[in-house]
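Section 3.1: Structural characterization of target chains.
Under the original work plan, the team committed to producing a structural model for every single-chain target entering the pipeline before any wet-lab resources were allocated. The record below documents one such target. The sequence was received from the expression subgroup and is listed exactly as submitted; it comprises 195 residues.
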Amino acid sequence: MLVRRIARPLLASSFVYGGISTLRNPQSRVPGAAKIVGQLAEQADKQLPVEVSKDVEQWVKVDAGIKVGAGATFALGVFPRLSALALAASIVPTTLAGHRFWEDTDPEKKFSNQAHFLKNAGLLGGLLIAAVDTEGKPSAGWRVRNVSERTIDKAEKKFEKASRKAEKAQKKAARGRTGRTIRKQAKAAKKAAGL
């Protein structure tokens, strides 16, 4: 659809631009990201069996790389749902790290950060919609249910057909035995009668 071809690059452009900008100068993002990286690393160390890096600049670069890569694939329509999810996952810590308007005391800075926070919340909403957009095609869940229902129907039909064949075979066998039994009895009766 034409709308998707236009909307995806528009939505992805700020991620790609921001990611490239951050990769060129990661130091400008390190102070804001330090708090979030510290909290995430602390939680990860408690829950994961491996130690998570606490190098803030490294995490800033990883986040920027995700934004560039997922933004480019999203814009091109390559794995758009997965790309949208990756971008959505990366925008949350970025927003919490860079736009903490509730901590600002300067009214101008607070207004600016609040505007950026709300802009990112709107981008997140758009990404979530894009992440569930099946482009008019049935979802994976529907496809699985449909295939399983068809498979079950086929199996039931084959079972019914086999049951009918077995029933016919039993009837035929029963008639055959009865017919043979009657013939044997008639033959025995003829013999006994001397015919």
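The CA atoms of residues 25 and 61 lie 9 Å apart.
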